[in-house]
Every structure is written in C-alpha cells, then in structure tokens.
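Reply to dn_fold:

You asked what the input looked like. This is it:
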Amino acid sequence: MAPGDATIVSQSRAQSYNFPAIYGETYIAGGRAAIPQAAPGENVFFVGHGVSQGGSGNAEIGEAAGDFGMDGEELWDNFKEIFPDLYNGDVYIDACASADPVEDLFSVIETFKAQSAITLDSSAVFGRTGSPVGDIPQPGDAAWVEAI
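and this is what came back:
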C-alpha cells in the first residue's frame, strides 16, 4: 500500500462498522479477499486518494505519486464483475476531486458513468469536489455531486 492508504482503509472500516447498513463490508483492491458481487439495490463506494492526470491522459483516482491509480474507464473495467444483472444501486467515488475535471478532461465520475452506462443504466454515479477530509458522506449528503 502507498503512504496514506492505511488511513483510508481504517476510516472505511470504521464507517462500515458504525454504519453497516449504509457502507457494508470494506474490501481492498488487490487484497487477499475476493470482492463479491453487490446486491442488486446495494450502493457501492470506491474510496481512494485524489485525482491527477493519469498515463492514459484521463483524470484518475489513486496515488498522486504514481504508485497506483485508475481513471473511470479502468475503474469500470476492473470492477464491472461486482455489478450483477439488474443492478439498480448507486455508485459513490470518494476521492479528492473525483467530480472535478482535470486540465479540460472529463472527471473520474463522468468517465466511469460513460463506461458503465449500458450495464448501470438505472444507477447514478456520484463523486466529490475539492479536497474533502473526514468521513465518507452518506448517500443524500450535499457533499456528493452527481455525474450527468
């Protein structure tokens, strides 16, 4: 894990523990445990470091130092198997500036929504602007920005 990841993981686990009906279990990308499919109406939360311009030229979430990152297309390609047929929950991408475009590029949430549109046609995709700190907001919180 990159520096700072332990904070994100511990924060995610604490919120899963305190609000299990909202956040469910915490899984780590590339971790030991396989990530199971979400229930059809379950919300999915991706939590990571802030946005930078990635190697693909798209905005990506991940370690700004270049250790690990994914743009919206790569995020969808790597995790589309966790979304079952008829999935109708929402997707929340909690990372600094995940809803902000980077240097005239589409934001992470915009590229994720575009890649997932056929499969997740009844789902909304949300992200954060600026540099948020603290807990992951609950669904419906004004901190979330919906991808159009």
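The mean pLDDT is 86.
Hope that clears it up.
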